[in-house]
Amino acid sequence: MLYVRPSPPIFQFNIILGSLVKIQHYPTAISLSKQFESKGIAPDLATLNILINCFCHLGHINFAFSVCAKILKMGYHPNIIILNTLIKGLCLRGQLSKALHFHDDAVAQGFRFNQVTYGTLVNGLCKMGETKAALELLKKIEGYSIKPDVVTYNTIIDSLCKNNLVADACNLYSEMIVKKISPSVITFNSLMYGFCAIGQLKEAIALLNDMKMKNINPTIYTFNILVDVSCKEGKMKETKIVIAAMVKAGVKPDVVTYNTLMNGYWLINEVKPAKHVFNSMAQNGITPDVGSYNIMIDGFCKKKMIDEAMNLLEKMKCKNMNPDTVTYSSLIDGMCKSRRIYYVWDLVDEMHDRGQPANIITYSSLLDALCKNCHLDRAIALFRNMIDRGIKPNKYTYTIIVDGLSGLFDKALALLSKMEEKGCMPNAITFEIIISSLFEKDENDMAEKLLREIIARGLLQ
């Protein structure tokens, strides 16, 4: 096209650039536009709009505004698409104040924006946690003779619910109904999440009836919100009600639903139902994922059913599923607590060979087992190795080590000094736990001495 004479019309070049933008090849689109400009082919307004879009997506806001200035020099007037693209670009870069200022300047010059503009600004405000400002902007929109759409309302309702301001979200929902703006499934999903977050599960479930009355079909995500909360609260009766409603609505449970159910049964120590749910997945055409196996393995380990947990690990390998850090950490913890410390190291080696990095949970389990089995030197060596690997101990890890060093006060202090050198000193809460632990073990002298040492170092006020 570049070498055809006469040159093809600019809209043919724009089609190519537009196609590149759709597949997010922004740098290529910019490069090609430079090539045809260098051949004397003048861009039009559509070309410049494409370039602004590219620069905005790449975060080059200054270049985008330079193109806008070029539009003005060429005698064009920026249209609503260009201005909306610039506002979206600013919002994507977190430059919300500049986006609002740009909007106010344009309005002052007599320009009128549309629903897309205000939806973008409201979304930006909510993502920045400025929900109150988003509500104020919503009130201003009508003054511009623009009717906010359901997307704008959904954005604010979702933000309010995530901040536990459910009453305000319900008021906004009522406002939607009064203004005859039809809610969508997203509206109800947000409200359900909000009610669940503040512990009002019955109110969340009741919204299913409201959806039915408004001919809105709940999605799998809708039901999974309710299943998740009811399971976490151990309310399996309510969970069954939700599952029944799910089946009645013709929505098929997915792997997330099954995983949530298994987790719920383990939380209330119901082993048989958890196993039944896991075994029924394949029968219902759902392939268990790594998360499914992790839930079952962790549950078995906590019940000290180590052999069953190890059988599941072998099944994972047979199915070419890669166990992750969570899988191994659960197994290592279960083995340690079942006093199978000598078998643990094979798992640790396997974990390392598979490229799964040990985390703080893995190390804490190993340290606890070593300390309780009087392998104090190995525990201290492992603890130091953990710090050298850049894994920061938490308060539980510190407590495990100091408990292990009970009666060896000098070593405990030396270890604290070493941690201080590494910049891994525990905080005040950690020391409180450690000292309380010493008092509980009737190591009063050691606890008081440690407290004096900490105060002398200025670690506690």
From TrEMBL:
SUPFAM superfamilies hit by this protein: HCP-like
Top-level lineage group: Eukaryota
InterPro entries: Mito_RNA_Proc_CCM1, PPR_rpt, TPR-like_helical_dom_sf
PPR repeats: 44-78, 79-113, 114-148, 149-183, 184-218, 219-253, 254-288, 289-323, 324-358, 359-393
UniProt keyword terms in alphabetical order: Repeat
PANTHER family membership: PENTATRICOPEPTIDE REPEAT PROTEIN-RELATED, PENTATRICOPEPTIDE REPEAT-CONTAINING PROTEIN PET309, MITOCHONDRIAL
Family the UniProt entry places it in: Belongs to the PPR family. P subfamily.
Protein name as annotated: Pentatricopeptide repeat-containing protein
Lineage start: Eukaryota, Viridiplantae, Streptophyta, Embryophyta, Tracheophyta
